[in-house]
Design a protein that fits this description.
By secondary structure, the chain is an alpha/beta fold. The protein has two domains: 234 residues, Rossmann fold (3-Layer(aba) Sandwich), CATH 3.40.50; 77 residues, ACT domain (Alpha-Beta Plaits), CATH 3.30.70.260. Helices cover 34% and strands 28% of the residues. A six-stranded mixed beta sheet has the order 6-7-8-3-9-10, sandwiched between helices. It starts with a strand and ends with a strand.
Length: 333
């Protein structure tokens, strides 16, 4: 399947000379049509800069941003504005116009492109139904809760009939219950309207709940990318390990001896693997840290264990673990 959005070797530098800061370096990603794609990283990783480069709110210093194979950087102002209508965006701060009602906020982007007032209001009411707030048409932003404001912002973003919806930390200002309802709304929009959703977040729970694939950003670069289940079950990068299981990313000291990281998923995460290893091999190991999480109804986990010093005994432990269905183990020290 051809990607709907493809980023190739993208870099973004702010400032010049001694004040130059490289926010993104050689980033390459491909987003498939109709998927919910997550981009996650710690603060300062470059997430928000990247999402703004996708619709050229920020102009990349180098690289390409392809939409249906067309490089947006090569477009003049008018054709770029036309393409931007197909790539809508919602923000953490909602960005609603305080002097306009909810209905008028949704009408605003339609008015800008010359849609008649009657048709704009009709479309806005349809969108209020989609986001579950038809009774808030005449309410002003100050009269709405945070979750309601975000629903209006989503409706406004849908007014231009976009193919892609960019969500920049769209739930980070909301409480957990409201976050859950907004994520379910985004899932519904993705499922029923076929709109591709790109979610920028620092919240692992958001990625776990709705994303199909995820890219992990670290210091302005892509650390790894893949299906959420695979990345969460067995992150390959240090950045991925820190995000998926924070304790797993801690530095080890030589005094800790040999250490293995075990990744397990599905039914394997519910089995007493270490207890079975001890009983079957008669070898005792110490658990140094463990973490489990739920991804799309399936349990995944990561564990650090100490390994025996003896090479043959250590090999027996690693072979036992790697021959267990649903389990992978690697020596990390």
């Amino acid at each position: 399947m051809e990607p709907i959005i493809e980023i190739k070797n993208l870099s973004k530098v702010f400032g010049s000379g001694e004040n130059q800061v490289a926010a993104l370096h050689n980033v390459s990603l491909a987003v498939r049509p109709g998927e919910i794609f997550g981009i996650i990283g710690l603060s300062g990783a470059g997430k928000s800069t990247l999402v703004r480069c996708i619709n050229l709110l920020e102009r990349p210093t180098d690289g390409q941003v392809l939409f249906h194979g067309q490089d947006l950087r090569n477009l003049k102002d008018k054709p770029l504005r036309q393409q931007r209508r197909k790539i809508s965006m919602i923000f953490q701060s909602f960005n609603l116009l305080e002097q306009r009602t909810a209905l008028d906020n949704i009408c605003f982007p339609l008015e800008l492109v010359g849609v008649s007032k009657k048709d704009a209001r009709k479309r806005a009411m349809e969108l209020l139904e989609i986001v579950g707030l038809p009774d808030k048409a005449n309410a002003y932003p100050v009269q709405l809760s945070g979750g309601q404001k975000q629903r209006i912002a989503i409706a406004r973003a849908l007014a231009s009939d976009p193919e892609v919806l960019l969500c920049d930390e769209a739930t980070s200002a909301l409480d957990p219950t409201t976050t859950d309802s907004i994520l379910k709304l985004l899932q519904k929009i993705n499922r029923e309207q076929g709109i591709t959703v790109i979610i920028i977040t620092h919240q692992m729970s958001v990625i776990e709940q709705i994303c199909h694939r995820v890219a992990i950003l670290d210091a302005g670069q892509v650390a790894e990318v893949g299906d959420v289940e695979k990345v969460f079950a067995n992150p390959q990068s240090k950045a991925g390990q820190r995000l998926v299981s924070p304790d797993m990313g801690l530095p080890y000291t030589p005094e800790d001896g040999p250490i293995a990281r075990i990744a397990f998923g599905g039914n394997a995460s519910e089995e007493p693997i270490i207890a079975s290893l001890t009983m079957d091999l008669g070898i005792k190991v110490s658990i140094m840290g463990a973490d489990t999480r739920n991804v799309d109804g399936k349990a995944f986990g990561t564990m650090l264990i100490s390994l025996p010093e003896d090479p043959e005994t250590k090999k027996a432990v690693m072979d036992y673990l790697n021959n267990h269905p649903g389990v992978s183990a690697e020596e990390v020290q």
